[in-house]
Amino acid sequence: MYFIPFLLIIxxxxxxxxxxxxxxYRMPLLSKGKGEEKEKEALPITIVIPxxxxxSELNDLITCIFNQQYAGAIHVLIANYSGEKSVExxxxxxxxxxxxxKHTNIATTTHLIDREKLAVSVGVKGARTEWVMLxxxxxxxxSPHWLREMMEARKHDCNIVVGYSNYAxxxxxxxxxxxxxxxxxxxxxxxxxxxxxxxxYLTHALVSRSHFLEQQGFSNQHTRLTIGTxxxxxxxxxxxxxxxxxLSMDTRVLNADSHASDYHQDxxxxxxxxxxxxxxxxxxxxxxxxxxxxLLTLPLLLLYTIIQNVALWMSYNGxxxxxxxxxxxxxxxxxxxxxxxxxxxISLLLTLIIPLRKLxxxxxxxxxxxxYPKLLxxxxxxxxxxxxxxxxxFFNRKKCVRRL
Length: 404
Prior knowledge:
The protein is of the alpha/beta class. It contains 13 helices and nine strands.
């Protein structure tokens, strides 16, 4: 009876948590940029930015792109599908200021395909380079090495590269929101090591133009959806290609426009992407959620073990034998119970502390401050938080063209 928790921890909990949690918590910490060893081989790149409305930070984004420390040629193509005259005037002014920036206008009367997806397709087809960076207009890369790190993450058989996405350091975003986003990013990187993508938060991705044209861009079931453009595209292309994850902290982008980061919009997009992903992707997400359930049982198991240990101590006090008179021999089974319970408590504490420490370090790496008490409480709140997002998505599904 006393050895059941011990066996569960040694043979189930610890190996499972190491595989599902500890190992990929450490991935962002162990990943380092390759420096300048491949900078002389940098390939030209085209950055395609679909633009829906006038964004006040667009000038800062373009300036940041052309100030990147990247040896290859950088071209920017803005696909404007807003239909507003003020946006057109802004783009004409930017073209005069930046020689390698061009823009194209997308018709606003199309009904066969979502305009944003049409803008992405036109932008990729209009690019003259093999590698195309698809980038949202309302984000801002904080690092001058962002483009170089994304390009250097490519492998010989890789045709898609994803990085840290959808981080917003605004007052409207709670630390629980950052917690959910970061765990989803880590899961994406873990799966991307096998060449796949699980869907989730994504605001920039590096795509091979030839692979995009070979697969004819978006799948037919995605073209009319008015949400989830880039994640759905990468999830579709990864079925026939390979995905690489850039784990360098320099590949993080920040959400610069608070209007585009509405909580209801985030919930709907996350739900739509999950709904249209493959069964294999849903299984991977289910495994991730199961590992969260195991984390929830650890404090309860620790409490149970402590209570059992207190009961064991009280049983000693009620007998003629004290702990000081016990000898370490096979004929004294009570000492084995003390050792077993001590190992259980230490193992449980390590199981809670080690992932907590690694996760806290990974948050520090992307400049997000979340305290240890919150990291200990958030696994309990995360299922409720995600359930709330699914409920919000259900009642806001009218924003989607297709009925779920």
